[in-house]
Amino acid sequence: MWLVVLFLVPLPFIQTLTTGLPALYNDQRLAIIWGAVAYAWMLASIYLSTRPHWLDRLIGLPKMYMIHGIMALAAVALAYFHKQSSPSAGWIKTTGDWAFDLFLGLLVFALVFMAGWFTSHFKVIQVSKRWLETHLLKHELTVWLHRLNLVAVALVFIHVQLIDYIRAIIPFMIWFDGATLLVALSYIWQKFSSQRLAQLQQTQLIAPNVLELTLSVPKQLMRQYLPGDFLFLAIPQQPGLQEPHPFSITKFDMKRRQLTLTIRGDGDFTRQLQKLKPPIAVTITTGFGQYEQLLTRRQPQQLLLIGGGMGVVPLLAVVQQHPELTTDFFYSAHSQRALLYPQEFATWEQRPNFKGHLQVGHFEADTILQTLPQNLENLAVMIGGPQALGQYWRTRLQQHGVAADQIYYEEFTW
């Protein structure tokens, strides 16, 4: 994916531009190429932001968002070099300057508020982000501010259309206009066609600040979800809940066409969910996630699950849907009341091939490592929980011979 975005996407832009660029502008050739590559990368970044479902099933949405963010950062860096090395005047300069300033401001904003892969490494930024989200910037406002990137791209589009000698390079303009149109159509399609109507039938507090939602889902859509998936939920009729938000699926009920979501009230969106009075219409997307992809790829005989806090939610659906797998499930939380669905674990204990381990506080490493089978080839490991937990167990398991492609941890840091 990195190779495609870094090299293949901008290649037609570079080739058509260098072939058709007049010799008069040879001294600016490199700067002009930098600008073209920056635009190609920005288009790729916007396309990734549409959450293409086919790509999620290949690499996963967390990785997709990380590539989206880093490509935007790289595009702004190249745009800076282009701006410094390619002089212009009039509206050509004005539209270029406006676009760059807007991109730069939004990039700093996105790194703090929307790039969990970045903020998770800096405690000060995490604390500042939580304070600002609580007191000043609600979720929907941050989403709308991020969409100003589309305005910046439109300014760049106008900027290029105003340059006579670039507009005269017909093959380049075909690629330029065609790629812009393709990404614009993808964005519109995602915005207006990815949402499906469902109904929120019931809500119930099952633990302090933890809400269980039961959704009634159309039959055809129900078939598209896999164990461990998450979906994006929005409530069009409720102010503050109109922008889609991701939540993992806890349970499937195919006969009743019902999905269960389990959500902790950590932010303004999730706290408002606790005030809803069902039944109420909602919109949801198809499923995203890589947990089931791991099972499809590895075909394991034994499953090791490690869950911490709310990260346990997608793992519960995996156990529900795969009773045939020999399973060791280690689940920890910070208090007894925070351990969710103990009755489900009691039911699964009736299976001859299931062992559940629930406790308050972290498990000692040896407690989990001693359950590893002698033949590691037949093992798959799924981890859900805080980033520190996921990173720790990926490292420890690989140190004990478990291959990296046998382990999947889905970081909900975006």
From TrEMBL:
Domain (FAD-binding FR-type) ranges: 193-294
Keywords associated with the record: 2Fe-2S, FAD, Flavoprotein, Iron, Iron-sulfur, Membrane, Metal-binding, Oxidoreductase, Transmembrane, Transmembrane helix
Transmembrane segments: 30-49, 61-82, 102-120, 141-162, 168-189
Top-level taxon: Bacteria
PROSITE patterns: FAD_FR
Gene3D superfamilies: Nucleotide-binding domain of ferredoxin-NADP reductase (FNR) module (3.40.50.80), Translation factors (2.40.30.10)
Pfam family, one: FAD_binding_8
GO molecular function: 2 iron, 2 sulfur cluster binding; flavin adenine dinucleotide binding; metal ion binding; oxidoreductase activity
The protein's name in its UniProt record: Ferric reductase
Organism: Agrilactobacillus composti DSM 18527 = JCM 14202
